[in-house]
Amino acid sequence: MNLTNTNSKPSSTSHTISQTPLELWGGIECTVVRIQDKFRNQAEETGHASRLQDLDAIAGLGIRTLRYPVLWETISPDHPDECVWSWHDERMDRMRALGISPIAGLVHHGSGPAYTNLLDPDFPILLARHAERVAKRYPWVKLFTPVNEPLTTARFSGLYGHWYPHGRDENTMLRALYTECRGTVLAMRAIRQHIPDAKLVQTEDMGKIFSVPRLQHQADYENERRWLSFDLLCGRIDKTHYWYQRFIDAGIEAGQLDEFVNQPCIPDMIGINHYVTSERFLDHRFRNYPPAFHTDAVPYVDVHATRAYQADGLTGPEARLREVWERYRVPIAVTEAHLGGSRDDQLRWLGQVWQAAQNLRAEGADIRAVSVWSIFGCVDWNSLLTQQNGFYESGVFDVRGKGSTLRPTALAEAVSSLAKEGKFDHPVLDGLGWWQRGDRFFVPPPQPSRVPYVSSSARKLVITGGRGTLGRALARVCEHRSLAHDLLTRDEMDIADQASVEAALARHRPWAVINAAGYVRVADAARESDRCFRENAAGAEMLARACARMGIPYVTFSSDLVFDGTLGRAYVESDKVSPLCVYGNSKAEAEKRVMQVFPDALVVRTSAFFGPWDRYNFVHAVLRDLAAGRQVEASDEVHVSPTYVPDLAHATIDLLIDRVNGIWHLANQGAISWFEFAERAARQAGMDTGTLMRVRGASSGITALTSERGLILPSFTSAIERYVQENTIAWSDSPSEREAA
User: For a tag on the chain, would you pick the N or C end, based on fewer CB atoms within 10 A?
Assistant: First the structure.
């Protein structure tokens, strides 16, 4: 990697463009942020802090440059002269042995240890002291980011009040920004005393603001503001600068600004952290947007620009990177490329960012790398860390497994391919990400886009069980996620008939198969045991055998009824099966046969599923009868793990894309009795529970499911809340407008 250290102001003349291929870098979400008097550490919350072997997993992907924390708050938390290096020494030594070059981050969205903050005049001096110690201890490190995203941090800490010191005005924001940038200057000076060729990789989010005409003044204000961290470091904020007087009014002296002008600290590389949500749209018409975007703080809504058709075609990483290159003409890297959400959209986003960088390189821009971010995921960033809900977004690896297990997601294969070959492919890339589809807008455009969400030549997956609840739900979720698919009924493919299976697979040529077909009438299974075993065991095996022979990824479903409920706790995947009924026996037999003929198949065990799109489930029956005033009886002796069908469908598809194999338990977290299940549903729906009767049945036990491989579905509480909000079927005996919809 060839980084040029420039000691003069950037000019319009181009650098010599590197002829080396675009690199794939990595980064872990490592924020240490103070909120009131408490600190949150993302390396601890994702488990990375206790897993040295994570670095070997990163190296195994082919990543050789890694944004990594050497954070002030973790080394000198209590006193500036008391340092604890053991954790960092072990990891820095391991990276060096693995051939990984760290980009050392010294403050990541933080305000420093508890003895300082972003408004402390001594913050820059103290940070420089920490930076010098880091340089002396690790003199082989060449790349540094003393302060990550200084403007973004200043906004969140000084303007919006999210993080310490919780300021809520422009002056506080500007003072915090000055402090961070001054700290960056002093830190780099201190580092270069010991590492003369040290490089500054300065990161920032450069999202642009769009608006309706009435709010153009606010958009212009924010769009000028977004350049402040780079303009300050590059010495551009002199008396002619749009923001110069605002800094003066905030209490920053002219001489302090002149120091940047006279001795700029120009980044050797500009790092752009770009997210789907980075770009915003402002609109004063509250009624057009969900209540979640309404606020009393400002007289307008602030939404993702991708949700507003007025910004269509103007957003995205390529446009923002081009703006940065044209303004500064300094080498650029995308230093964070991350998307929370479905696995297909994560792959599509990484692909779009990578292609944007390649396109700009073709134009002559000096784009050096794209960094896959949140390698081990992140926690509670949907609330900007202000709430502790344990909301986890997976990354290249999913860390929700038992113990210290790291599970590679489909992103791992993509990252490895990009790092080693500069390209990757997957069938899901044939569809559009949600931020590109015409149904994403809060307000429909006057002329809706006719661009198909999935190309006509898209590779498809096959879903069986076309008339069943689960099959139709899976198809619905695929439609929502722009995944090309064929939903087959028994007439189109009889999974227990070899000729039918082979003909259907030859006709549809799927890249994957999800088997949602089978016999589902538990109460009738003893009377129709031959049919039950044919459809559940023989059919699942027949389809698995064909997929194994053709190399097609395969998923099939099993049940909690493979267990007898006598264990006294929720069951995990490795527990021995012990079915009590014919239906349970058929599913246990199916599991055994499928794993024998296709060890790479995925078998999903689930339990008591309920969904918002049809009436064939326990919850709908309970609410229907309660709404009609009928008595409802439910056992309080059998405990289950209710499973919300949309959650089940999304998780199954993610695991399929990840190429997971073996048995996996998917159920919403929590074990409750059938009576408690009915009671919670009724109360959530606001219904009277007076006719709900608690009964003792002939059976008892716990057939609830939990997982040692990873609890990837939300809680039951979340599921039942969403069921009531999203239900499309009337809780009555006759069709209604809601059901027709």
Answer: C
